[in-house]
Amino acid sequence: MAHVSRAARYPVLLHGFTGSAAAWGERLVDGLTGAGLTPVLVDLPGHGCEAERSDPAAFTLEAVLGHVARAGDWPTDLVGYSMGGRVALHFAAAFPERVRRLVLESASPGLASEEERAARRVADEALAFELIAGGIESFVDAWEAQPLFESRAALEAAVRARQRELRLRNDPEGLAAALRGLGAGALPSLWGRLAEIAVPTLLVVGALDAKFVAIAERMVRAMPDARVVEVPGAGHTVHLERSDGWLAAVTDFLG
């Protein structure tokens, strides 16, 4: 597990699939630290410093929530991007007394029906097989080429190269285990429990990411204390594509 600080009430940050603690980037970490919010950066199982962990026991929901619990001094703020946002939402549902404020970037409560989750499990199993058979470089090429990430083309070349370098450091077996254990098909849906999650919540989405804008608008209607910030000019990876907009929204909310 990698982190910058373990200070009480400082935010714990959970990255997305194929990411790592380092993938948040120096600009964002420095921005949070400058605002008095030095972050605790967590490598989720199968990623970063945890890349070579492929034991299925490390990828159960209970194990992952325990992994997050050990990272912070609670109560504190919890921030999650994409897959990390889904994990963060499960953590807030399981341990509401530990989460002071919750920030979810481009995140979803999961797939609502068992039919959708079953179909996703089949798709993720095929993807995991391709990942192991084809190797990490081929997988990263295909992952980065998804329409979901088209807006990343506007990023500085150095930022894109750094993100790719970090993805390539991950281990195929570890990422495959994360797909099987932490994918949207594997984790239970929280759509039916959103009304129970009373933690003050900020939903951050990029204006160019129509799918997750719609998800955030649906979530905010179901949660007791949530608000949406839609960042102009950003797609799925708001914290990289428009880091200033992300920082303004998040530091204001957590501050």
Tell me what the structure shows:
With about 260 residues, the protein is of the alpha/beta class. It has one domain (about 10-255): Alpha/Beta hydrolase fold, catalytic domain (Rossmann fold), CATH 3.40.50.1820. It is about 45% helix and about 10% strand. It has helices spanning about 25-35, 60-70, 85-95, 115-135, 135-145, 155-170, 170-180, 210-220, 240, 245-255, and strands at about 10-15, 40, 75-80, 100-105, 200-205, 225-230. Strands 2-1-3-4-5-6 form a six-stranded parallel β-sheet, with helices on both faces.
CATH architecture: 3-Layer(aba) Sandwich
Count of strand segments: 6
How many DSSP helices?
10
CATH superfamily annotation: Alpha/Beta hydrolase fold, catalytic domain
Rg value: 17 Å
Fill in the CATH topology.
Answer: Rossmann fold
User: How many domain regions?
Assistant: 1
Characterize the overall form.
Answer: globular
